[in-house]
Amino acid sequence: MPGKVLFPAEGEGRNAVHAAMLGWEVHAFDIRSARVGYHRKEKNFIAGMGFVPRSNINETYGSIEPGPRPGVPGIMQILTGGNFNYISNIEQGFTETREIQLKPLGTRFFSGEEVSYILSNQFEHLLNDFRISGSVVIPRSEYEWWRNKISLKTKGALNIWGETTYGYGNFFNGKREDITIKAVGYLQNHVDLPQGSFTANIYQLNASILFSPDITLYNYIQYDNFSRTAGWQSRFQWILKPGNEVIIAWNSLFAGQNNTFHMEENALRLKLKYNIRF
Fold first, then answer.
1. What is the Cα 254 distance to its own chain's centre?
2. What pLDDT, on the 0 to 100 scale, is given for residue 154?
3. 153 forms bridges with which residues in the sheet?
4. Does some domain include residue 92?
5. Cβ atoms of residues 59 and 45 within 8 Å
6. How many domains does the chain have?
7. Burial 46-58 (b: 16+ CB within 10 A, else e)
8. Is 171 exposed, middle or buried (0-12, 13-18, 19+ CB in 10 A)?
9. What is the Cα–Cα distance from 113 to 156, expressed in whole angstroms?
10. What is the pTM of this model?
């Protein structure tokens, strides 16, 4: 059914922000959802809470997601659609960012798998030099490029699930190749620019042990080759009864140096939760 969200302005004059958004979730005419919105953040706007990444802008965005069901054996739904985001400078009127994404081909099968192809076009006007990695700096200028992304998801009835994404194409004044494997928590970004090349690798591991419906041990580990640091988060949760529980959390940060790791930070926290009902 249709829905509408409207946000009034906050602040006054050059300190104000205005926003409005109109969205639908109709599930009719083979359209899953659609929305269109507008933001205006004045130059001197400061959020009372949170962080505003960009001010002095007009932003217009929208999306539409048709999802027809063709009635073909094995195919549940055809996934198509697109979205756009357009950001312009209020004072000078030039375009800062423009991004258009199209999904010309996507299929969801009854077995739970999804396969899709996304084509995107992006424009960026860099007002200042952008240090993207180490000594690699992208000069301030106007850039426009095209990128492609192919993704495969396995979910639903399978005992093993995961998601694999491969992206390739241009990036500012160079090339970029992305590989994501969520089943094992691996992300690789390879960027090749005239100013230099670099590869960022991120490794993630989620390992949770469910001893019983009331006792669980959660573990999360992440490492990246840029900072050469590894983080480990572990949480033990024991639910004595609904509303009463014991939580023990452990956080550690390891730094790599000379092919070895040493612990830089660690913290142990204990939380007891007990509800008294009258």
1. 25
2. 81
3. 114, 163
4. yes
5. no
6. 2
7. eeeeeeeeebbbb
8. buried
9. 7
10. 0.69
Decide if 77 is inside a domain: yes
Cβ neighbour number for residue 118 with a 10 Å cutoff? 19
Q: What CATH number does the domain containing 266 carry?
A: 3.10.450
Final residue of a structural domain among 79, 110, 141: 110
The rounded distance, in Å, linking the Cα atoms of 123 and 145 is 7
Q: Which residues contact 91 (CB under 8 A, 6 or more apart)?
A: 43, 56
Q: DSSP assignment, residue 28?
A: B
Compute the residue count for the chain: 278
Contacts of 89 (CB under 8 A, 6+ apart): 56, 57, 95, 96
What domain range is 86 assigned to? Answer: 1-110
Q: Structure tokens of 87?
A: 């950001």
Residue ending a domain, among 110, 133, 162, is 110
DSSP per-residue string spanning 137-198: EEPSSEEEEEEEEEEEEE-TT-SS-EEEEEEEEEETTEEEEEEEETTTTEEEEEEEETTEEE
pLDDT at 191 exceeding the cut of 70: yes
- pLDDT at residue 102, as a whole number: 96
Mean per-residue pLDDT over the chain, rounded: 83
Inside any domain, residue 146: no
Mean pLDDT, residues 78-91? 93
185, 206 Cβ separation under 8 angstroms: yes
| pLDDT on residue 67 | 84
**How far is 61 from 39, CA to CA, in rounded Å?**
9
Confidence of residue 1 (pLDDT cuts 50, 70, 90): very low
Residues 6+ apart with CB under 8 A from 71: none
